[in-house]
């Protein structure tokens, strides 16, 4: 029985059930087709092909399209001709597509209409969804037995939802499509750009569609990250009933167990095979008792038993069968072997060499690695995949890859779960690996590169290591994307990221990415941006983005003034907005003020919060204190402050950002509903998060172009969040959705935190290009003992400026730039202090500050006297924000902390 016959049989029973769903994400509506619609479209295409195409001999038709709702209908229509279909990648450069057509002698290629502008040799031939151009295809036969066997093995029924994880150019897609459609199940298809973003993909698969069966490569699964796999993909309540992993070495049991949440019931399979023998050849179901076993040292996972009609042999280098020991796997079987190149038939008993080596023990095959994974190093035989397996089991390692570079250096590439030191990983590897297996070098990277088929890109093909391996990730101006290890999936991801970053469609950019040097790609982006006339910036203001060769004088124009996109009714208290940020500032009813101006809107203050209107501030400041009299407040012998009582901080919630957090929180709340308060903060994961203050739940998340150390501020109108980034841009995001509104370009990384003028609304920010932007006049300067990374804090009195310095001191200056006091911490201070009132003693103003060694300091704001100190489990570059009795701060252990400020005996 043919594949199309299996689908027709299932469709006759489930004619009105949903056969295919296409979900493009939240930006577009969900599209679904029933089995009736799928068959109708297939018949229409079949009739068209038979009418307009002159077939001779073997019938072969190319299929040139992106993932979409009609893909299964198009494939069925071709098969019903009958003909074989040859999928082509629309994201490949024209020269590669032409080479494929010529090599395969394709006569007809069906082209999706929206792709037609990519080729000049196309003419209209079908009034439906296709256009036609002449050309030439690869011929291979597919066995129905494998699909039927897989369907029974996974117990797929009409109640299941399967995901088309593989591109059409990867042969497992045949299994995914026909196992689903021959069972009456629903096939879920998503566009390529959704697959690129793990969180978005997980939401579509497991929240919106409740996918029950997933076939994927281990690399594709690892892209979700350990936390998302455990909390969503393999959680206790996941919809996923079957997970089949193949195409690469199966993860170790230790790694597999670390991915599963307690109570997870997903059946997990190890599937193995090669394209030349129709996708999958063997399977092994991991017993549930093995997955739940507490034993840490387990044997490797076997390849398992052959599928129906499959012959599996292990042979040594002499071609003899191996029953115990090591050898190469050969696969074959009647009706399982595909035709290669010009073959039209194969001799009976043909066995295809796989290039994979296994160890046979007690009748089971255990995968060792590819033939090219076996090397000789320091006089001893080494399987480099063993190094990868051991490294991946280390707690700090998210994922990794190993390469034997130029047959000289063994290099380990690691994606870490948090900031780690190389030496710590090497130390653990020395405990677990023999000397000849230890890597020569290790490179920490943000993510492993992977092909459009979901496999790890071999490091040899993406790196050029002239010296230090870390230099390999730098891109010369004349580099071409494909020559540097790029492929169609990564090019689509890059295009999507650029368009998201700029908020502008980039026609023609994909072709440039795939065929031209990176400098031309850059120039095309700049030209496209400057051609836009609809920039949402007031006339006469500075340009939104600035070319790197612009003269310094041109960069000092008037600062951009944000025009409110969501106007507030400032005369209505129901629309009042309070934004609390670093430096003790807040935004109320669209007008900047400090905490002393909260008296007119007490409804925004929670019951346990005492506004700083009660803070007593002297009318006249005392003269500057002589520097020799400024001393660090003493500690008792127990290490506790001698003045006042201890303040205790207790964790309320924490929110994982994926990388260390050096930025400081910004709180925004509605006067009419303080319970809706949002915390905005960025991290080194390139992401800005909006988190609910009271629950810790994420409201939105936006990916920027690079790491974020800058702390966000809010615009005067309250509609925008402004933050700097390592990519040299100052981003303006919509506060409600995180959508990028515009970005201003500096000439180097922006680690400084933007500030907004309370009267004009102008944005002030510094850059590592040695310029400060939007400053109109120079007033004064104060010399600290080291570089100042900290941003200034202006307390409620508006008479002092507080900031930290690289020299480990906290400084308090008058508004005229005179020193009032300074306090020495135990490490450098990059965070911005926060002034707040002591809720138990309204006449006292306190200061919260953090040093990089993880210590939180509570000082008296007027004198700098120490009141309390608390230590977090990691370095701290983030700045604290206090709201009521809660203190929020980020830490370099990847967490954002919310700490309760507790008092005893009515004392701080």
UniProtKB/TrEMBL annotation:
Q: Which residues form the AMP-dependent synthetase/ligase domain?
A: 154-334
- One Pfam family named in its UniProt record: AMP-binding
| Positions of the Pyrrolo-quinoline quinone repeat domain | 657-777, 779-901
Example GO BP: amino acid activation for nonribosomal peptide biosynthetic process
Domain AMP-binding enzyme C-terminal: start-end pairs: 388-455
Write down the superkingdom of origin: Eukaryota
In residue numbers, the region (Disordered) covers: 616-642
Protein's name in the database: Beta-alanine-activating enzyme
What is the protein's species of origin? Answer: Myodes glareolus
Source taxonomy lineage? Eukaryota, Metazoa, Chordata, Craniata, Vertebrata
């Amino acid at each position: 029985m043919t594949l199309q016959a299996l689908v027709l049989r299932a469709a006759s029973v489930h004619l009105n059930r949903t056969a295919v769903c296409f979900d493009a994400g939240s930006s577009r509506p969900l599209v679904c087709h029933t089995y009736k619609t799928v068959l109708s479209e297939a018949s229409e295409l079949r009739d068209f092909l038979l009418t307009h195409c002159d077939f001779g001999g073997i019938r072969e038709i190319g299929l040139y399209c992106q993932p979409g709702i009609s893909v299964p209908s198009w494939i069925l229509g071709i098969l019903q001709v009958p003909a074989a279909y040859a999928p082509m990648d629309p994201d490949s450069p024209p020269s590669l597509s032409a080479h494929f057509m010529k090599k395969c002698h394709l006569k007809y290629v069906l082209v999706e209409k929206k792709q037609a502008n990519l080729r000049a040799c196309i003419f209209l031939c079908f009034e439906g969804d296709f256009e036609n151009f002449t050309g030439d295809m690869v011929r291979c036969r597919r066995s129905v037995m494998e699909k039927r066997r897989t369907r029974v093995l996974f117990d797929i029924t009409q109640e299941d939802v399967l995901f088309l994880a593989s591109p059409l150019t990867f042969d497992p897609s045949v299994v995914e499509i026909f196992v689903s459609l021959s069972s009456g199940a629903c096939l879920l298809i998503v566009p390529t750009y959704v697959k690129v973003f793990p969180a978005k993909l997980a939401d579509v698969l497991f929240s919106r569609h409740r996918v029950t069966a997933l076939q994927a490569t281990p690399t594709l699964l690892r892209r979700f990250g350990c936390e998302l796999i455990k909390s969503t993909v393999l959680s206790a309540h996941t919809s996923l009933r079957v997970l089949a992993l193949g195409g690469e070495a199966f993860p170790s049991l230790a790694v597999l167990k670390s991915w599963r949440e307690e109570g997870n019931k997903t059946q997990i399979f190890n599937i193995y095979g090669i394209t030349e023998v129709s996708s999958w050849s063997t399977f092994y179901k991991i017993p549930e008792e093995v997955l739940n076993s507490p034993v840490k040292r387990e044997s490797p996972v076997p390849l398992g038993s052959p599928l129906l009609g499959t012959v599996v042999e292990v042979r040594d280098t002499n071609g003899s069968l191996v029953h115990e020991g090591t050898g190469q796997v050969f696969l074959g079987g009647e009706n399982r072997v595909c035709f290669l190149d010009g073959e039209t038939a194969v001799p009976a008993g043909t066995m295809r060499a796989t290039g994979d080596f296994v160890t046979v023990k007690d009748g089971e095959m255990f995968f060792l690695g590819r033939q090219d994974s076996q090397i000789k190093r320091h006089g001893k035989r080494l399987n480099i995949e063993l190094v990868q397996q051991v490294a991946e089991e280390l707690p700090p390692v998210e994922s990794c890859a190993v390469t034997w570079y130029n047959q000289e250096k063994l290099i380990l590439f690691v994606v870490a779960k948090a900031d780690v030191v190389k030496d710590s990983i090497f130390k653990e590897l020395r405990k677990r690996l023999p000397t000849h297996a230890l890597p020569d070098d290790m490179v920490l990277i943000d993510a492993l590169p992977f092909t459009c088929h979901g496999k790890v890109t071999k490091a040899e093909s993406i790196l050029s290591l002239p010296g230090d391996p870390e230099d390999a990730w730098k891109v010369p101006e004349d580099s071409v994307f494909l020559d540097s290890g790029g492929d169609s999936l990564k090019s689509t991801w890059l295009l999507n990221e650029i368009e998201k970053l700029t908020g502008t469609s980039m026609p023609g950019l994909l072709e440039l990415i795939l065929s031209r040097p990176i400098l031309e790609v850059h120039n095309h982006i700049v030209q496209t941006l400057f051609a836009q006339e609809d920039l949402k910036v007031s006339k006469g203001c500075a340009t939104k983005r600035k070319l790197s060769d612009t003269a310094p004088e041109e960069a000092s124009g008037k600062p951009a003034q944000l025009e409110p996109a969501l106007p507030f009714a400032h005369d209505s208290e129901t629309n009042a907005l309070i934004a609390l940020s670093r430096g003790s500032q807040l935004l109320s009813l669209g007008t900047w003020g400090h905490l002393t101006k909260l008296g007119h809107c007490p409804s925004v203050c929670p019951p346990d919060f005492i506004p700083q209107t009660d803070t007593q501030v002297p009318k006249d400041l005392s003269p500057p204190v002589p520097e020799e009299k400024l001393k660090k407040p003493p500690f008792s012998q127990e290490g506790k402050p001698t003045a006042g009582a201890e303040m205790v901080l207790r964790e309320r919630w924490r929110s994982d950002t994926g990388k260390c957090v050096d930025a400081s929180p910004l709180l925004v709340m509605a006067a009419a509903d303080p319970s809706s308060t949002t915390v905005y903060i960025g991290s080194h994961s390139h992401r800005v998060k909006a988190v609910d203050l009271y629950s810790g739940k994420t409201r939105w998340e936006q990916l920027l172009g690079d790491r974020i150390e800058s702390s966000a501020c809010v615009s005067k109108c309250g509609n925008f969040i402004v933050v700097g980034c390592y990519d040299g841009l100052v981003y303006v995001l919509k506060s409600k959705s995180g959508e990028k509104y515009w970005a201003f370009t500096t000439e180097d990384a922006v680690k400084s935190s933007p500030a907004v003028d309370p009267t004009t609304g102008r944005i002030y920010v510094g850059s590592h290009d040695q310029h400060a932007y939007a400053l109109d006049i120079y007033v004064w300067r104060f010399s600290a003992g080291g570089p100042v990374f900290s941003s200034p804090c202006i307390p409620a009195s508006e008479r002092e400026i507080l900031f930290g310095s690289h020299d480990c001191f906290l400084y308090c200056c008058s508004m005229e730039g005179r020193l009032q006091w300074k306090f020495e911490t135990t490490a450098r201070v990059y965070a911005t202090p926060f002034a707040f009132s002591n809720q138990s003693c309204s006449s006292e103003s306190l200061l919260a500050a953090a040093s990089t060694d993880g210590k939180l300091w509570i000082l008296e704001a007027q004198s700098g006297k120490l009141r309390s100190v608390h230590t977090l489990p990691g370095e701290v570059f983030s700045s604290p924000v206090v709201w009521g009795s809660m203190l929020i701060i980020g830490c370099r252990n990847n967490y954002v902390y919310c700490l309760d400020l507790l008092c005893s005996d009515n004392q701080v």
